[in-house]
Amino acid sequence: MGVFSCQLNLEILLEDKVKIYGVVAEVRDINDNAPYFQEDELEIKMSENAVTGLRFPLPHAWDLDIGKNALQSYRLSSNTHFSLDVQSGADDIKYPELVLECALDREQKAVHHLVLTASYGGDPVHRNGVRIQVMVVDVNDNTPVFAQPEYHVSVPENVAIGTKLLLVSATDPDEGATVEVMYSFLYVDKKAA
Fold this sequence. Notes:
CATH architecture of the domain at 41-137: Sandwich
Helix content: under 10%
Shape: rod-shaped
CATH superfamily of the domain at 41-137: Cadherins
Largest sheet: 4 strands, mixed
CATH class of the domain at 41-137: Mainly Beta
CATH topology of the domain at 41-137: Immunoglobulin-like
Strand content: 35-45%
Radius of gyration: 32 Å
Protein backbone atom coordinates (compact mmCIF):
# COMPACT_ATOMS: atom_id res chain seq x y z
CA MET A 1 0.00 0.00 0.00
CA GLY A 2 1.06 3.59 -0.41
CA VAL A 3 2.54 5.67 2.38
CA PHE A 4 -0.18 7.19 4.49
CA SER A 5 0.25 9.87 7.08
CA CYS A 6 -2.08 10.62 9.91
CA GLN A 7 -1.46 14.09 11.28
CA LEU A 8 -3.47 16.24 13.62
CA ASN A 9 -3.09 19.96 13.11
CA LEU A 10 -3.74 21.78 16.38
CA GLU A 11 -3.58 25.34 17.55
CA ILE A 12 -2.62 26.14 21.13
CA LEU A 13 -3.62 29.44 22.71
CA LEU A 14 -1.48 30.69 25.59
CA GLU A 15 -3.60 33.03 27.69
CA ASP A 16 -0.90 34.87 29.58
CA LYS A 17 0.89 36.09 26.42
CA VAL A 18 -2.13 35.83 24.12
CA LYS A 19 -0.18 33.98 21.53
CA ILE A 20 -1.30 31.10 19.24
CA TYR A 21 1.13 28.31 18.41
CA GLY A 22 0.63 25.77 15.61
CA VAL A 23 1.33 22.16 16.58
CA VAL A 24 1.40 19.12 14.28
CA ALA A 25 1.00 15.73 16.00
CA GLU A 26 1.84 12.65 13.90
CA VAL A 27 0.00 9.43 14.79
CA ARG A 28 2.06 6.29 14.12
CA ASP A 29 0.58 2.89 13.34
CA ILE A 30 1.45 0.23 15.94
CA ASN A 31 0.16 -2.84 14.04
CA ASP A 32 -2.71 -3.45 16.44
CA ASN A 33 -5.22 -4.79 13.90
CA ALA A 34 -5.44 -8.27 12.45
CA PRO A 35 -6.38 -8.67 8.78
CA TYR A 36 -9.93 -9.74 8.06
CA PHE A 37 -12.08 -10.95 5.21
CA GLN A 38 -15.69 -9.82 4.93
CA GLU A 39 -16.76 -13.48 4.75
CA ASP A 40 -15.50 -16.51 6.71
CA GLU A 41 -16.43 -18.92 3.91
CA LEU A 42 -16.75 -18.76 0.16
CA GLU A 43 -18.39 -21.27 -2.19
CA ILE A 44 -17.34 -21.32 -5.84
CA LYS A 45 -19.06 -23.43 -8.50
CA MET A 46 -16.78 -24.50 -11.34
CA SER A 47 -17.70 -26.77 -14.25
CA GLU A 48 -15.68 -29.96 -14.54
CA ASN A 49 -14.95 -29.05 -18.17
CA ALA A 50 -13.44 -25.66 -17.20
CA VAL A 51 -10.22 -25.03 -19.10
CA THR A 52 -6.90 -24.82 -17.29
CA GLY A 53 -5.81 -21.24 -16.82
CA LEU A 54 -9.34 -20.15 -15.85
CA ARG A 55 -9.13 -17.32 -13.29
CA PHE A 56 -11.65 -16.71 -10.55
CA PRO A 57 -11.45 -13.49 -8.48
CA LEU A 58 -11.27 -14.06 -4.72
CA PRO A 59 -12.20 -11.60 -1.97
CA HIS A 60 -9.38 -9.38 -0.80
CA ALA A 61 -8.51 -8.89 2.86
CA TRP A 62 -8.92 -5.67 4.81
CA ASP A 63 -6.71 -4.17 7.50
CA LEU A 64 -6.91 -0.93 9.43
CA ASP A 65 -3.11 -0.78 9.73
CA ILE A 66 -1.05 1.14 7.18
CA GLY A 67 2.45 1.30 5.72
CA LYS A 68 4.80 -1.56 6.68
CA ASN A 69 2.03 -3.05 8.84
CA ALA A 70 -0.33 -3.37 5.87
CA LEU A 71 -0.95 -6.38 3.61
CA GLN A 72 2.25 -8.06 2.41
CA SER A 73 1.08 -11.32 0.82
CA TYR A 74 -1.58 -13.98 0.25
CA ARG A 75 -1.07 -17.73 0.41
CA LEU A 76 -3.27 -20.59 -0.82
CA SER A 77 -3.34 -23.91 1.03
CA SER A 78 -1.49 -26.77 -0.62
CA ASN A 79 -3.53 -28.58 -3.30
CA THR A 80 -3.14 -30.29 -6.67
CA HIS A 81 -5.57 -28.31 -8.85
CA PHE A 82 -5.28 -24.59 -8.09
CA SER A 83 -2.68 -21.86 -7.75
CA LEU A 84 -2.88 -18.26 -6.61
CA ASP A 85 -2.07 -15.11 -8.55
CA VAL A 86 -2.16 -11.67 -6.94
CA GLN A 87 -2.83 -8.51 -8.94
CA SER A 88 -2.22 -4.98 -7.63
CA GLY A 89 -4.96 -2.49 -8.37
CA ALA A 90 -4.62 1.22 -9.02
CA ASP A 91 -5.86 1.71 -5.45
CA ASP A 92 -2.77 -0.18 -4.14
CA ILE A 93 -5.01 -3.03 -2.95
CA LYS A 94 -3.75 -6.53 -3.73
CA TYR A 95 -6.44 -8.66 -5.39
CA PRO A 96 -6.06 -12.47 -5.21
CA GLU A 97 -7.22 -14.72 -8.06
CA LEU A 98 -7.72 -18.49 -8.03
CA VAL A 99 -6.16 -20.10 -11.13
CA LEU A 100 -7.16 -23.58 -12.37
CA GLU A 101 -3.93 -25.52 -13.03
CA CYS A 102 -5.23 -29.06 -13.56
CA ALA A 103 -8.39 -30.47 -15.17
CA LEU A 104 -11.29 -31.15 -12.79
CA ASP A 105 -13.24 -34.41 -12.64
CA ARG A 106 -16.39 -34.40 -10.50
CA GLU A 107 -16.54 -38.18 -10.45
CA GLN A 108 -13.04 -38.26 -8.87
CA LYS A 109 -13.46 -35.30 -6.48
CA ALA A 110 -16.69 -33.30 -6.22
CA VAL A 111 -15.48 -30.68 -3.70
CA HIS A 112 -12.08 -29.05 -3.20
CA HIS A 113 -11.44 -27.46 0.21
CA LEU A 114 -8.96 -24.57 0.22
CA VAL A 115 -7.87 -21.79 2.58
CA LEU A 116 -6.76 -18.33 1.43
CA THR A 117 -4.51 -16.69 4.04
CA ALA A 118 -3.62 -12.99 4.17
CA SER A 119 -0.37 -12.01 5.89
CA TYR A 120 0.56 -8.56 7.04
CA GLY A 121 3.92 -7.08 7.88
CA GLY A 122 5.11 -5.56 11.10
CA ASP A 123 5.86 -7.16 14.42
CA PRO A 124 4.01 -9.25 15.36
CA VAL A 125 2.92 -10.60 11.96
CA HIS A 126 -0.87 -10.97 11.76
CA ARG A 127 -2.63 -13.57 9.58
CA ASN A 128 -6.22 -14.47 8.87
CA GLY A 129 -7.92 -16.71 6.35
CA VAL A 130 -11.09 -17.49 4.47
CA ARG A 131 -12.26 -21.06 3.77
CA ILE A 132 -13.04 -21.76 0.11
CA GLN A 133 -15.12 -24.66 -1.18
CA VAL A 134 -14.86 -25.26 -4.91
CA MET A 135 -17.93 -27.26 -5.94
CA VAL A 136 -17.29 -29.13 -9.19
CA VAL A 137 -20.38 -29.00 -11.41
CA ASP A 138 -21.02 -32.14 -13.43
CA VAL A 139 -21.13 -32.33 -17.22
CA ASN A 140 -22.22 -35.40 -19.19
CA ASP A 141 -18.70 -36.72 -19.76
CA ASN A 142 -19.18 -40.40 -18.96
CA THR A 143 -20.87 -43.17 -20.91
CA PRO A 144 -23.08 -45.69 -19.16
CA VAL A 145 -21.43 -48.98 -18.20
CA PHE A 146 -23.26 -52.31 -18.18
CA ALA A 147 -23.02 -54.46 -15.05
CA GLN A 148 -21.52 -57.27 -17.21
CA PRO A 149 -19.58 -57.10 -20.48
CA GLU A 150 -21.96 -59.59 -22.20
CA TYR A 151 -25.43 -60.99 -21.57
CA HIS A 152 -26.55 -64.43 -22.77
CA VAL A 153 -30.03 -65.90 -22.68
CA SER A 154 -31.58 -69.09 -24.01
CA VAL A 155 -35.16 -68.74 -25.18
CA PRO A 156 -37.46 -71.71 -25.65
CA GLU A 157 -39.16 -71.90 -29.03
CA ASN A 158 -42.64 -71.70 -27.55
CA VAL A 159 -42.13 -68.72 -25.20
CA ALA A 160 -45.18 -66.44 -24.95
CA ILE A 161 -45.03 -63.00 -26.54
CA GLY A 162 -44.37 -60.32 -23.88
CA THR A 163 -42.39 -62.66 -21.61
CA LYS A 164 -39.40 -61.01 -19.93
CA LEU A 165 -36.31 -62.78 -21.16
CA LEU A 166 -33.44 -60.91 -19.55
CA LEU A 167 -32.78 -58.05 -17.14
CA VAL A 168 -29.85 -55.80 -18.03
CA SER A 169 -28.40 -53.07 -15.88
CA ALA A 170 -26.15 -50.10 -16.63
CA THR A 171 -24.99 -47.19 -14.50
CA ASP A 172 -23.64 -43.74 -15.29
CA PRO A 173 -21.27 -42.01 -12.83
CA ASP A 174 -22.53 -38.56 -13.89
CA GLU A 175 -25.18 -36.85 -11.77
CA GLY A 176 -28.43 -35.02 -12.37
CA ALA A 177 -30.52 -35.41 -15.52
CA THR A 178 -27.61 -36.95 -17.43
CA VAL A 179 -27.55 -40.02 -15.18
CA GLU A 180 -30.77 -41.51 -16.63
CA VAL A 181 -29.83 -44.51 -18.76
CA MET A 182 -31.92 -45.27 -21.87
CA TYR A 183 -31.73 -48.62 -23.63
CA SER A 184 -32.25 -49.47 -27.31
CA PHE A 185 -31.21 -52.14 -29.79
CA LEU A 186 -28.84 -51.16 -32.55
CA TYR A 187 -29.66 -54.14 -34.74
CA VAL A 188 -32.50 -56.63 -34.63
CA ASP A 189 -32.35 -59.63 -36.96
CA LYS A 190 -35.50 -59.75 -39.10
CA LYS A 191 -35.89 -63.42 -38.19
CA ALA A 192 -36.07 -62.49 -34.49
CA ALA A 193 -38.67 -59.78 -34.96
